[in-house]
Structures are given as C-alpha cells and as structure tokens.
Amino acid sequence: MSDVSPSRRLGQAKLVERLSVDTHRFHGGHKCERRVTAERQQQTPYLDALCEYAERRPARLHVPGHKGGAGADPGMLRAFGERAVSLDIPALTHGIDVGVDPTPFEQAQRLAAEAWGARRAWFLINGASQGNLAAGLALAHYGSEVVIQRNAHSSAIDSLVLSGLRPTFAAPEVDPELGIAHCLTPETLERALAATPAAVAAWVISPTYFGAVADVRALAAVAHSRGLPLVVDEAWGAHMAFHEELPEHALALGADLVISSTHKIVGSLTQSAMLHLGHGGGGLIGEDTVDRAVTLTESTSPNSLLCGSLDAARRQAAVHGRELLGRTMAALVQTREQIRAIDGLDVLDDRLTGRPGVFAYDPLRLAVDVRGVGASGYELAPLLREIDDINLELYGQNVLVAVFGMGERGLPEAERLVAALRTAVERVGLDPGGAQASFAAPPPWGELAMTPRAAYLGAQEVVPAAQAAGRIAAESLATYPPGIPNVLPGERLTAETLAYVQNTLELGGSVRGASDRLLHTVRVVVEAGRT
Ligand SMILES: Cc1ncc(COP(=O)(O)O)c(C=O)c1O
After folding, report:
1. Which of these, 126, 162, 273, 474, is most buried using a 10 Å CB contact count?
2. Cis peptide leading into residue 45 (ω within 30°)
3. What is the dihedral angle through the alpha carbons of 125, 128, 130, 136, rounded to the nearest 10 degrees?
C-alpha cells in the first residue's frame, strides 16, 4: 500500500499564505473581492477531476478491483449506480491529487478553508471521530494534560487513550428540568484550567446534540488568556457558518482547532468530515503537527466519493446555504408551533437561551419535550416508527430529537412527524404531572487513578458489578440521558455511580461503552494485591 497522505498534502504549506488573505476577504472586505470569492466557491475542482477521469475511460491498472464497474458485482452496480462506482478512484491518481501543484484535491481543501474561514482545512474520511482522534494526537505534542468537557464524544475519549493525555474533566451544565447536558460555561473552564496548570489546551463541545450552543468567544478568551488553544468539537455545527441568523460558528469566534462533522447537517456523504485550523490563537497549534496527526489517523486509501461529496457539500453550503437554511429555518418555526399546539408536547427552542450553559440555540435540531404525555421518549420512538415509519436521530426519557439537513426543501418529513406525534399522543394520553417530574442529577464521577490509556491497555478482568465498587474501570459507562459519561477508563468506580447506572437501565435508559449492556458485569483494571 502506498503512503498517500504526505503526497496529497504536498504544496499545502505554500497555499496557507494565499488562503489567509482569501479568507479575510470572504468574511468581510470589499464587495468586489467578495464577489470574486463567491464565484470561486461555485467551483468543485476535486469532484470535476473525478468526473473527468471517469469519463475519459482510462486504463485502470490500479485498485480498487472493481475497476470502476467492469469488475463489480452486478447487484452492487444496480444498487449504487454505475456512475458512482466509476467515480471510486484511488488516491495518488495523476491530475486528481498528484500532478501540477495545486492539485484539484489541494484546491478543494483550500476552498473549504476559505468557506469556513479557516487557516487550513483537512478532508476527513473517518468522520468527526477522526477529527477528535487527530486533535488529541496533535495536542499530545505539547504536553501530557488537557482540560476536556466531561460529555465529550466517545471518539474524544478514544483520543485520550491513543494520545495518553491525562484529562481534567470540566462538567457541562445539566438542565434540571429536561435532564439533558448543555455546554460548558467560561467560569467552569476557568476553574478547570486553574486546577490544571500543566494543561496544553481546552477542549469543548458546541453545539450539543440538543442544539445548545456555547459562549465560544468567552471560552476562547479564557483559554487564550493562559496562552492555550481552544479546541471545539463542532461536529453538529458545520452549517452555522452560512446564515447570519444562526449562532456564530466557532472559527469566527476565535477557536483554534475545530472538528466539523460535515455529513451531519451540511449533507456530504456519511463518514466525511473536516478538521479546521483557525486563524485565532496566534498559531497555538502547529499546522504541521495537525497534518501529521491527520495522516496517522487516516487510511492510505481514502475514498474519493467521500472527498468528492465534501467538495460538493462545501459548494452547496457556500453558494446556496443561506437560502436553503433560511427556508429550512422558516419551515421549522412553523413545525415547532404545530408541535407545541399538540396537548402534552413542547419543543426546545430559543427560550433555552440564557439558561446555564446555553449561550444560543441552533434551530436545525428539533427536540420535542414529551414530559407532558403518558409515555416516555423510549416508548414514543418505536410508536412513531409503527405509525408512519418515523425514524429519529435520538431519544431519551424526556426528549425526542429530529435532525433537519441544510438542503431539505418543503420539509414533508416535518409534516409526517407532526401528524404521527398527534396520533401517538392520542394513543398514549396525557400525563400532566410528567412535566413537573424533576431529574436526579448523576453522582460525581470517581477519582482518576490512572490515565485512560494506561487503564485501556493494562491488564484487565471482568467482575460482577456488585463487586466492582472501588476498582478502576477499564471501560466507559455513559447513561442516556443525559449522556455525560458516568465512568471513564482510569476512574475508580463508586457504589453510588454503579447504582445510578443500574437505576437508569431499570427506568428504560441505556448505557453506552459498557461491555455488558445490562451491567451484570464490569471490565476493570487488575491492580497488584487486589482481586
Ligand atoms: C459531538 C460529537 N463529536 C463527534 C462525533 C463523531 O462524528 P462522526 O460520526 O462524524 O465520526 C459525534 C457524532 O455524533 C458527535 O456528536
């Protein structure tokens, strides 16, 4: 196998200078310069290069073995379409990602950086998960400790395992009514950084699954005041750069490294994502360091369909995003009103703004508060599937979450959701007391006895949960709701936490990360002198 990454990135350093000039123009500057930038954003150099290669019918004496269709299973060709298979072209193909500099691949990444206002953008083929893995590995070049938001995505925790970073966890605000986790406040970050003098960065999440957006400008100021970079996992916020009524996005607010799950709302193909290096922070994270980390975490055979979809989604967002998002937001205003008009239901919306940990709200998530009806979110979700094949992004005890993409037109799905919710509520009835039901906050997490890496890689054994209190966990336990990990590898298990997780399971909740989903047993570290 060839080592594709360095070659694919050859010449990128040279582009940075020009890129930073272009980016400033796109986000301000003279009208005429903006027009030039907007015209450039119409282009899809990488996607075009793929099409050109497929159309000229070259002798494909390279992988993949399907040879653009000739060697493919007919069922696969029928399912995917001949065209898609012909565009599955490997890396290191002349005229696509090698050849005259800048190659179409380099141009495409450069356009992405320009569109989002980044110093540099990397296309990722293993999702925002890869972005988190790369971020941790990049940070580990600067030291061994990091302050990270407790409800970081599992890939960020995996990154701690890979990088060996020792985390100081900062707790997000938990909504006492809804039982969901919001964002980290600047005050909490300040305290966590003060307690971690050796930290090399602050690492936060915004927006959350439920649409809460953090005060990223203030978080960046807190980190920068200590000379540290701010890493923002903005997996759910790639669209926010493209409409002025949406909350401002992290790069515009001074974040230094931003993880973006482009496929989630902007609509590139599943598993495609981007990592952006910001202009802010005065070069607190080295571009070459990030580049090496991206290379280490990626396949040597990056999928051209994924990268092509990123090029196309970037164009769609930069050229039509404002109009598309405007339409989707308007339709969602109407949908929220219709749902609120159903007895027993409410929706999360801008009214959340101002609660602890909610600086702004991203309206592209439609979170339905079901506490007023006679069934939990766990019961309603299958009922909605049964009524009209409604498939949700996420559901918990109190909330159902439907996700809307940037480019949805007319939102017929929203109408289906409203109609199905109406039917579901008629069937299950109301529970007027439910809306007052308070949420029991999870117990505090246990002492970090060793790094997640040491716990993950060290000797382990599986013990009955009833005997696990006091032992060091070798796996995560994260109950939903609210999705804040109760236990992470390296932390000492407490009887309180084990009881809390068990209780959540009994109430119909779920636990992620556990090797035994029913928590009869737990995987723990083998400690000398302890069995
Ligand atoms: C906050 C956050 N970060 C990262 C990820 C990983 O994204 P991906 O599925 O693109 O790898 C997710 C996925 O849901 C997420 O919610």
Report:
1. 273
2. no
3. 150
In this structure, how many other beta carbons lie within 10 angstroms of the beta carbon of residue 345? 23
What b/e sequence results for 374-410 when a residue is b if at least 16 CB atoms lie within 10 Å of its CB, and e otherwise?
A: bbbbbbbbebbeebeebebebbbbbbbbbbbbbbbee
The span from the CA of 514 to the CA of 480, in Å, is: 12
Cα distance between residue 379 and residue 508, in whole Å: 9
Backbone angles phi, psi at 56, to 5 degrees: -85, 5
Distance from the alpha carbon of residue 154 to the mean position of ligand 1, in angstroms: 8
Pairing of strands 166-170, 145-149: parallel
Cα 125 to Cα 306: distance, rounded to the nearest angstrom: 6
3-state SS, residue 442:
coil
**How far is Cα 197 from Cα 40, in angstroms, rounded to an integer?**
45
Predicted confidence at residue 411, as pLDDT, reads 75
| Contact by Cβ (8 Å): 282, 296 | no
Query: What is the DSSP annotation of 70-89?
Result: TTS-HHHHHHH-HHHHHT--
Residue type (1 letter), 30: H
Instruction: Say if CB 201 and CB 293 are below 8 A apart.
Output: no
Single pTM value for the model? 0.92
Contacts of residue 30, Cβ cutoff 8 Å, sequence gap at least 6? none
Cα 271 to averaged position of ligand 1 atoms, centre (Å): 10
Residues whose CB falls within 8 Å of the CB of residue 478, separated by 6 or more in sequence, listed in order: 154, 484, 485, 486, 487, 511, 512, 513
Kindly give the distance from the C-alpha atom of residue 75 to the centroid of ligand 1, in angstroms, as a whole number: 31
3-state SS, 444-484, equals CCCCECCCHHHHHHCCEEEEEHHHCCCCEECCCEEEECCCC
Give average pLDDT by consecutive 10-residue segment, the chain, 531 residues: 39 35 41 74 98 96 95 97 97 96 97 97 97 98 97 92 97 86 96 98 95 97 97 97 97 97 96 93 84 97 98 97 94 95 96 96 94 93 97 89 84 92 97 69 90 96 96 91 83 95 83 90 90 60
Identify residue 466 by its one-letter amino acid code.
A
Q: Which atom of ligand 1 is nearest to the CA of 263?
A: 10
